[in-house]
Specification:
The protein is α+β, with helices and mostly antiparallel strands. About 20% of the residues lie in helices and about 25% in strands. The strands form 2 sheets. The chain has a 4-stranded antiparallel β-sheet, with helices on one face. Strands 3-4 form a two-stranded antiparallel ribbon. It is globular. The two termini are about 40 Å apart.
Length: about 200
Amino acid sequence: MAIPGEDLHADLAGGWVLPEPAPREAVHTRSIVCRSFRRDDGLIDIDGRFIDTRPFAYDSDFRGPCESGSALHNMQLRLTVKRDRTIHALASAMPGTPYSGCAEVNANFQRLVGLSLARGFRKALRERLAGVEGCTHILALLDTMAAAAVQSFASTAYAPRKPGQAEPVRIWKLESLIDSCWSYRSDGPVMRQMQQR
């Protein structure tokens, strides 16, 4: 399914505005992508994908010969999130892993159903999926998905609504933004403008 603007996230050669680098060669690419969808029932789906690739062929002690560009990690999650930002449902898949047993941990991710993506999420996540109960890469993906959830709810405030769809959830509280980053500094122009609303 093509989504407008998604090509900005897939173009690895273009779009970079960093200074010209020193001579170098590619050895690894990690991609974490989150896509959010407003469902007809008012819930939000956030699909997340974590992929690691190497741009050369190599031999793995556990998987044997690996082709150039093949996924060392290809891990995927779908969080279905309620309006109060709690996880309503979770689906997971691991089509590419470095070890054959990695996918056995998928069942443990169901422990996150009911968990709030709001403040304290990272701590609660690690309490439920610490050490051998979880997966380092899935934790990294979930951290990113929780941050993406904030933008997802913010985006629904701007998205056109179908007749009868509920008003979007407003999650931005001005007081929680103050001094949380450079642009939201209390004496800056962005905060001055936001406080005038």
